[in-house]
């Protein structure tokens, strides 16, 4: 019962975007998806390149 309640609370948490910077220039989108997928489902990765 406790495990079910714990899982239910996790499902109710609202997902929020995260912003990651200062990674290597040759980092690939698939690498970021693989790294962050252990924390939940990845809906989109938007990588900016160049100098801001």
Automatic annotation (TrEMBL):
<feature type="domain" description="RRM">
    <location>
        <begin position="16"/>
        <end position="52"/>
    </location>
</feature>
<keyword id="KW-0694">RNA-binding</keyword>
<protein>
    <submittedName>
        <fullName>Arginine/serine-rich splicing factor</fullName>
    </submittedName>
</protein>
<dbReference type="InterPro" id="IPR012677">
    <property type="entry name" value="Nucleotide-bd_a/b_plait_sf"/>
</dbReference>
<dbReference type="InterPro" id="IPR000504">
    <property type="entry name" value="RRM_dom"/>
</dbReference>
<dbReference type="GO" id="GO:0003723">
    <property type="term" value="F:RNA binding"/>
</dbReference>
<dbReference type="Pfam" id="PF00076">
    <property type="entry name" value="RRM_1"/>
</dbReference>
<dbReference type="InterPro" id="IPR035979">
    <property type="entry name" value="RBD_domain_sf"/>
</dbReference>
């Amino acid at each position: 019962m406790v495990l079910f309640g714990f899982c239910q609370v996790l499902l109710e948490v609202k997902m929020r975007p995260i912003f990651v910077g200062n990674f290597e220039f040759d980092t690939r989108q698939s690498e970021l998806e693989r790294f962050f997928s252990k924390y939940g489902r990845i809906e989109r990765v938007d990588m900016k390149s160049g100098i801001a």
